[in-house]
Amino acid sequence: MSGFGTECAEIVRAARPGDYRVGMVLGSGLGQLADEVEDAVRIPYARLTGFPVSSVSSHGSELVAGRLGDVPVVVLSGRAHYYEGGGADVMRTPLEALKALGCDTLLLTNAAGSLRQEFAPGTPMLISDHINWSGLNPLIGEESDRRFLDMSAAYDPDFRARLRELAAEEEIALGEGVYMWFSGPSFETPAEIRMAKQLGADAVGMSTVPEVILARYLGLRVAAISTITNYGAGLQAHGLSHEETKSTALMAVDALKRLIRRFVKDLGNA
C-alpha cells in the first residue's frame, strides 16, 4: 500500500475517528446517494494527496465518511477515469485509503449503455462479470507475483445473491449481466456494439473495471451495479450524449438508494 493511501486515511480519521466497514464509489448522476450518509464529514479530493479530481461534469470530487444506519461507510462521490489522464490506476490511492480505513467491502455504481432490449434506460443492472476490452490494467508495473490476480469470482457471488433477494423484496426490477469496459471518452460505434453483443456483453461503459481489479488486489469483496442510461449505438433511434447519461441516471436514484441502504444494513447484521 502506498504512503498516500495511509496518509489520506489518517486525514479522514482526524476529521471523523473510527474504523469503517463499507466503501462506495458513485458514478455519473448518482452523487445524490452521498446525501444518504448520516453524521457525515465531507472532505474534497483536493485535500487528499493522490486523490484525482474528476473533470467530468456529472461527477463530484469529495469523500464522505459517516454512517448508513448503524454501519460506518466511506463514500467516494465521483471517480476519475482512464480517459481523463491515461492512467488505468488513477483510482488506486482512493481505494488504498478505503482499505486503510478498515473497509472490507466495496460497492461500485456506474452509468452504462444497454445491449439488451429488456434492460431499458432507467433500469439498474447488477454486474455479474466483466470483459476488459480496453486491454489496460491498473496492475501493470507491479513487481510481485500478487499481480497474477485470480478474477474468476471478482463480483462476489454471495453479495450478488443477496442483492437479488433484496431487490425482489423492495420490488425493484434488477437486471443482471456482463459489463464491457471501453476506454472512452468517445461513445462506442454501432459496429463495436454489435461486436460486444457477440462477445457476451450485456452493457458497456467507461469505468469500474480498473477499480474492481484494484479492489480485489487489495483484498476487498466487490459488488457493482450499473444504471442503464441508454441503448448502445445503433440500438436506439437517436444518437448518444453525456446529457442523456446524466439525466437518465437520475431516474434510478431512488431505487438504488433503497437497495443500497438495505444491502449495507444487511452487511452490518452479518
UniProtKB/TrEMBL annotation:
Sorted keywords for this record are: Glycosyltransferase, Transferase
Q: Which residues lie in coiled coils?
A: none
Q: Which residues bind a purine D-ribonucleoside?
A: 188, 230
Q: What does the protein in this record do?
A: The purine nucleoside phosphorylases catalyze the phosphorolytic breakdown of the N-glycosidic bond in the beta-(deoxy)ribonucleoside molecules, with the formation of the corresponding free purine bases and pentose-1-phosphate.
Q: Does the keyword Transferase apply?
A: yes
Q: Nucleoside phosphorylase domain: which residues?
A: 22-265
Q: Which domain of life is it from?
A: Bacteria
The protein's name: Purine nucleoside phosphorylase
Q: State the Gene Ontology BP annotations.
A: nucleoside metabolic process
Q: Which Pfam families match?
A: PNP_UDP_1
Report the source organism: Stappia indica
What family is this protein classified in?
Answer: Belongs to the PNP/MTAP phosphorylase family.
Q: How does it assemble?
A: Homotrimer.
Q: In which pathway does it act?
A: Purine metabolism; purine nucleoside salvage
The Enzyme Commission number assigned here is: 2.4.2.1
Q: Under the cellular component aspect of Gene Ontology, which terms does the record hold?
A: cytoplasm
Q: Name one GO molecular function term.
A: purine-nucleoside phosphorylase activity
Binding sites annotated in the UniProt record for phosphate: 28, 59, 79-81, 111, 207
CDD domains, alphabetized:
PNP-EcPNPII_like
Matching Gene3D superfamilies, A to Z? Nucleoside phosphorylase domain
